[in-house]
Amino acid sequence: MKKILLSCAVVSLVSINVFADDITDLKAQIEALNKKVETLEKKQKRTNKSLAKVRAHDANDNIKWSIDFRTAYQALNYKMKNNGSVTDPSLFTNRLWLGMASSPMPDLVFKGQLAVYSTWGGNNLPTNDPFQNVNWRASSKPDDIVVKLRQAYFTYTFNKSSNHSITISAGRRAAADGFLANHREGNEKPGSPLAHITNMEVDAGMIKIGNAFGLEGSYVKFVAGRSYDNINQASFNGTPYTTINAIDSDVNFFVMPMSIYNDGQFDLMAQYTYIFDFMGVNNITGIPQTGAGDKHMGAVSLEINGLNEDSDFLDDSTFFISGAFTTSVPKSGYSMLGSTETQTGYSFWTGFIMPDLITDDGHIGFEYNYGSKYWAPMTWAEDTLSGSKIATRGSAYEVYWNLPIVNKYFSTQVRYTYMDYKYKSNIEEFWAAPDLQNGDPTSAQDLRIYLRYTY
Amino acid sequence: MTTVKRVAFAAIIGLGLIATTASADASKGKRIYQKKLKSVCGFSGAVFAAKHTQDEWAEAKDNGELGKVMEEACPAGKDFFESSKFKKKFSSHLYDFVHDFASDSGNIPSC
User: Fold this and answer.
1) A200-210/A166-175 β-pairing
2) Closest CA in chain A for residue B39
3) Measured between beta carbons, which residues in chain B are less than 8 angstroms from residue A76?
């Protein structure tokens, strides 16, 4: 019995020693943890204070900004009918786009864009020259350093998660650099309309229906807007913004752009446009004015992204082809494009963009355009200083090299465009007869080299 | 030779000397998703990219588990994510796309 008691006493003593060691360790660990918790609590307090400051600072800061800044060198050369040639060997420009985006909830989005497109230094461009200053291309042609509104619109989407979502939108959009023109502008993504017949800054309302044809990537948009508002000087009579004895009419348009099929490789798009009370010439007075007739336009464009998966070169190449028409229908007593009868013009546009085989990400593009005598698309905001190459009546040839320098954030482009006019270039007097007159350009060359920062 | 042609020639030679940085392409990644995965996964590329935050996508890439994480987001795409083409050709572009449109990217899609 004594032995047993002695054994128990020994075991108890050993255990007490062991537990005492454990307790000491535990105490040390608890103290260390307490210190860590104290440190973390201090950090948490500091973080909360900082977060409160950030929240207070950003409380009404609901716009997300983006920058697209481009500085460019351009050289222009025109050959004139029976009148030699005209050249500008060096024209430098800056173009700044400040992008705005705001979205309080996923279904409701505001997008905007402020733009400055200016020549280096002052210039002697007339302040009222419509080539720079009309509403539909005001921020698409270089002029002064005034900030202009290029885009401001909202979109609201119903049933966003369903296959047949419906989006409504209204405001001002740059319907420019659209489908297929994005390559020649060095843009990753195309704008909304088909660039073959539309390249304008427009004010309009829109309804978009998703999965419109039951085909992959399909949608259709119904767009209605106004390109010219007939507000004369009636404010002198005390009735501002009204029309009194004006010879012009409002010009409205209806556009239906649609994606027929888009699986990421094959992208088939189409567009129909109707313009009401378009520009023409009064046959009695000889004065150009709106309300002279109506206009129809249509285009079908196909782009193939990646021609063959088994070849890196072909997989990284893009081919596109597009056909389009424009029809002018003058009213009685008026002429459009120099004719009192309905006239239709046609155009064909194709391009091939391939890896440059010199750099990792550079691409070289080749494009060809053809336009017939009465071809007259609405492409006046196209970023070609010598005038829209897509609107060429005759043939236009173009080659460009798009080269990223630092990823997608800093890039450069060299682009050369040659336009061979068989008929009058569709730049300014878009109501005039297409036949070439003495002093009209018979060809134009446009070289552009830019450096561009995008973030 | 006209001024236009002379300047164009000089610019092409000059730009050829610029060393470019190799980069993946988010828009190409979007096209790859549209072409290879959209119908398989049954949802849009925006929904797929928003399955994770930018940090989560970056961590998956750094750990060499991008295919695995993408497969968890779209189990029906298993064959694609486990293919050699995904690893060699598509993963960098797809990563750029999902990173650009991750749930916390702040990117606001256009209509």
Assistant:
1) antiparallel
2) A216
3) 4
Least CB–CB distance from B23: residue in A167, A169, A407: A407
Domain count, chain B: 1
Q: Which residues of A touch B3 (CB under 8 A)?
A: 75, 77, 87, 89
Identify the CATH assignment for A64-454 out of 1.10.490.10, 2.40.160.10, 3.60.21.10, 2.40.50.140: 2.40.160.10
Residues of chain A with pLDDT under 70: 1-18, 128-133, 232-237, 244-246, 428
The residue-averaged pLDDT of B18-36 equals 71
Could you tell me the residue range of the domain that residue B41 belongs to? 26-100
Cβ–Cβ gap B25/A155 under 8 Å? no
Whether B57 is in a domain gets the answer yes
Name the residue facing A401 among B15, B26, B106 (closest C-beta).
B15
pLDDT-based confidence at B1, cuts 50/70/90? very low
Name the nearest CA neighbour of A159 among A209, A206, A213, A111: A209
Residue B93 sits at the chain A interface (C-beta within 8 Å): no
Cβ neighbours, 10 Å, residue A359: 19
Q: For residue range B69-91, what is the model confidence (pLDDT) as tens digits?
A: 999 999 998 888 988 888 888 88
The confidence score (pLDDT) of residue B39 equals: 82
B108·A217 Cβ contact <8 A: no
* CA proximity to B61, closest of B85, B35, B97, B109: B97
Closest by CA position to B30, among listed A184, A265, A181, A403: A265
